[in-house]
């Protein structure tokens, strides 16, 4: 039977290490592999392999493509394959700011291993604060490459939302209660457990991708837990690009986490993805709406995507929809929804055709740089 592999991620090194040490202790014969990227901006990556007795081996690894995450992916597979026959469990102890998705997908593609879960370990004292921080990783000493422009809260959100399980460490009962409440909004479908379950079938990375990708994401529902609020905005009319652009700063700065898919009136064929955390927002092209494709092309679309589109399907506009979700402390749900409603194309608006829209100023054009192709 193939040796199970568990990925343990998390910006909080103490929480992550506690999880790895517990796995090593509870699974005799297990090994943990860690790539230390603390010196990656100086071109150095150090790999270590340990068991429950301590470090067994260390080595300096050549930096691949100037990228720490690329180095981890390329060096990890042979390191896992070599000891696999004699190990009961292989633990991938990911560096602070490494996002687990690319590593999980690389291991699944390799076909020689049996990854079973992606676990993110969190410090209960720091997580509710860190998800609100706008610091870049370079400022916190957690960059995964020279020139890493990612923000701490962005990485933390992706580590939380991609994981198959989560754990909380440190802090007191009040810290744990608040952190659990925040996680109940950010990742409502993900269990919080003392230790990850490493048994079970091989990780389905396609299902994990569908869970977080804009077209198929399992977005949170309206919810209130103490001071933590999640507000859902769901509409069927297109958004005016200029009005939405003008409203973005308020939408992003008055909430902590927001994401979803949306429809601009001047980009009728394209689904757009909204992703914002701690005041940093990204708007990206997520491909064509299903309704914009010829029916002959639908067979090429995954069943999950077709099912997601069916839930939003309207006989006139197809799967085009506004579905954005905002989370933060004491959010004014009515104000957020009212502000977004004011950005919609209304009955009093004249709706230009595609040729006329081309003559209008599009504030999103420099960001999207869309290539109108499927």
- Our estimate of the beta-strand percent is 15-25%
Instruction: Provide the low-confidence segments as ranges.
Output: 370-374
Mean pLDDT over all positions: 90
- What's the level 1 CATH class of the largest domain? Alpha Beta
Question: Your description of this structure?
Answer:
The chain has 374 residues and is α/β, with parallel strands linked by helices. It folds into 2 domains: 4-212, Rossmann fold (3-Layer(aba) Sandwich), CATH 3.40.50; 223-368, Hypothetical Protein Yjia, Chain: A,domain 2 (2-Layer Sandwich). The chain is built from 13 helices and 13 strands. It has helices at residues 13-26, 68-81, 100-110, 127-130, 137-140, 152-162, 173-186, 205-212, 241-253, 303-312, 333-341, 354-357, 365-368; strands spanning 4-9, 31-36, 45-51, 54-61, 90-93, 114-123, 165-169, 223-225, 228-235, 257-262, 270-277, 280-288, 322-329. The strands form 2 sheets. It has a 7-stranded mixed beta sheet with strand order 4-3-2-5-1-6-7, with helices on both faces. A 6-stranded antiparallel beta sheet has the order 8-9-13-10-11-12, sandwiched between helices. The model is unreliable at 370-374 (pLDDT under 50).
Main traits of this protein?
374 residues; alpha/beta; Rossmann fold; Hypothetical Protein Yjia, Chain: A,domain 2; seven-stranded mixed sheet; six-stranded antiparallel sheet; 24% strand
């Amino acid at each position: 039977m193939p040796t199970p592999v568990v990925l343990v991620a998390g910006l909080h090194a103490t929480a992550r290490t506690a999880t790895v040490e517990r796995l090593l202790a509870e699974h005799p014969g297990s090994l943990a592999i860690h790539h230390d990227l603390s010196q990656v901006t100086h071109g150095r990556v150090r790999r270590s392999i340990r068991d429950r007795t301590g470090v067994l081996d260390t080595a300096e690894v050549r930096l691949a493509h100037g990228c720490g995450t690329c180095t981890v992916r390329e060096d990890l597979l042979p390191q896992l394959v070599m000891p696999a026959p004699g190990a009961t469990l292989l633990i991938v102890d990911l560096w602070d700011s490494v996002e687990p998705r690319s590593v999980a997908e690389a291991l699944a593609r390799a076909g020689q291993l049996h990854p079973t879960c992606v676990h993110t370990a969190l410090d209960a004292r720091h997580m509710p604060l860190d998800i609100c921080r706008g610091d870049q990783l370079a400022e916190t000493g957690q960059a995964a490459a020279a020139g890493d422009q990612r923000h701490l809260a962005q990485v933390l959100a992706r580590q939380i939302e991609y994981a198959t399980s989560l754990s909380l460490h440190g802090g007191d009962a009040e810290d744990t209660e608040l952190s659990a409440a925040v996680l109940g909004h950010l990742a409502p479908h993900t269990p919080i457990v003392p230790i990850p379950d490493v048994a079970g079938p091989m990780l389905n990375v396609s299902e994990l991708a569908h869970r977080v990708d804009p077209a198929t994401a399992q977005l949170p529902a309206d919810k209130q837990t103490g001071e933590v609020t999640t507000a859902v905005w769901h509409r069927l009319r297109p958004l005016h690009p200029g009005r939405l652009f003008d409203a973005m700063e308020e939408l992003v700065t008055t909430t902590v986490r927001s994401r979803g898919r949306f429809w601009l009136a001047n980009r009728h064929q394209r689904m757009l993805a909204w992703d914002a955390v701690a005041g940093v927002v990204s708007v990206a092209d997520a491909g064509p709406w299903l309704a914009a494709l010829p029916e002959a092309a639908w067979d090429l679309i995954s069943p999950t995507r077709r099912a997601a589109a069916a839930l939003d399907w309207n006989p006139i506009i197809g799967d085009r929809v506004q579905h954005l979700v905002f989370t933060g402390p004491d959010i004014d749900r009515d104000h957020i929804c009212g502000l977004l409603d004011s950005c919609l194309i209304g009955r009093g608006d004249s709706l230009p055709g595609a040729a006329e829209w081309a003559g209008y100023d599009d504030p999103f054009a420099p960001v999207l740089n869309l290539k109108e192709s499927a």
